[in-house]
């Protein structure tokens, strides 16, 4: 017959072993950075959990910050003028603090299909297209002649610091969009999200669901 005390002691030992193993597996190593030379791009496609910081209006540069064990798994591939960001870690774990910071002369589009947030400042564009169908939050600063913003997931977009002459905004999920439009706002909600707007634009709206379109 086994000793009750021995059985009790085995439980915390086993739990401790699992916790230690988990810590080892999720340890990305000390934070480090890489400056990368990539082809020129004016658009970004963030497909993963990578957080992005974009600065518009200077010579192009790109830096990746991540744990030493996973930084080489952050892919920064440019195809047809679009920077595609993915995290290709074989084990499928780790990479919780990956940041890509880039400066570009011009920005015309942002697409986010993962959970990584995107912040962009200094925007000066005739037309800017932004789309998110994940849980990423997007923040925009600057000015644009025309803004096309589409949210199809649970992420939010804050573009109140981006002055747009005309804005076309579509929310198809549970996310909220905040925009600033001077002349015209075409707003469509299909779901539970809300479009908040600043300025005094002529508003055309369509709401199908429990969402709203309202001044902020």
UniProtKB/TrEMBL annotation:
Q: Which residues form a coiled coil?
A: none
**Family annotation (InterPro entries):** DUF2807 (IPR021255)
Q: Which residues form the Putative auto-transporter adhesin head GIN domain?
A: 41-201
Against Pfam families, the record matches this protein to: DUF2807
Q: Which domain of life is it from?
A: Bacteria
Q: What is this protein called?
A: DUF2807 domain-containing protein
Q: What organism is listed for this UniProt entry? A: Solirubrobacter ginsenosidimutans
Its taxonomic path starts at: Bacteria, Bacillati, Actinomycetota, Thermoleophilia, Solirubrobacterales
